[in-house]
Amino acid sequence: MALLQILCYPDPRLHTVARPVDAVDARVRRLVDDMLETMYSADGVGLAATQVDVHERVIVIDTAPNLKRPHVLINPELVARSQELAVTDEGCLSVPEIYDKVQRHAQVTVRALNRAGETVEYEASGLLAVCVQHEMDHLLGKVFVEYLSPLKRDRIRTKMLKRLRDGRRS
Ligand code: NI
Q1: Computed over its alpha carbons, how large is the radius of gyration of the chain?
Q2: What is the pLDDT of residues 19-52, one digit of tens each?
């Protein structure tokens, strides 16, 4: 396994729309394993392939990283969304040290392929629902800061660019 480099906002590659995975083969399983290792190493609870500059519909999530019970979602789709909404403080490995409130569906039902290439479908609520929606946004080229006001987003962009100039990632 290998640690992958995580792209940082406002890297334009984060706005790439991912394409579906053709087949869950050894290459895709290696990508999944590398993404999991990268996510755990960065103390994240979710990572989309977009963030490691691979533009295919692959997501890993683990809302209880101490227990190491990962969710692997390949070609995910939402088959149901609750009308009820919930606001959560979100962060992102591509936007280090920035947290802000985002409103999303409180529950979603997601269907995807798992690491074995089997179809799985389940209802997610709480932090898992937030992660599923946040990571699926990445696959569409959307970063959570795009839900914030233009003023806040500009501030974050400026801060990130300054960090890059200063030569530190986080
Ligand atoms: Ni993110």
Answers
A1: 15
A2: 999 999 999 999 999 999 999 999 999 999 999 9
Set 56, 84, 118, 135: catalytic member: 135
Q: Is 121 a catalytic residue?
A: no
Cα–Cα–Cα angle for 118, 126, 32, nearest 5°?
35
For ligand 1, the distance from its centroid to the CA atom of residue 170, given in whole angstroms, is: 15
> Ligand 1: distance of its center to the CA of 144 in Å?
7
Cα 165 from Cα 169, distance rounded (Å):
10
C-alpha span between 67 and 57 (Å, rounded): 25
Instruction: Read off the pLDDT of residues 39-85 as tens digits, 9 standing for 90 and up.
Output: 999 999 999 999 999 999 999 999 997 888 999 999 999 999 999 99
Tens digit of each residue's pLDDT (9 = 90 or more) over 102-113: 999 999 999 999
Give CA–CA dist 132/150, Å, rounded: 24
The Å distance, Cα 50 to ligand 1 centre, comes to: 9
CA distance 50 to 71: 17
The predicted model scores a pTM of 0.95
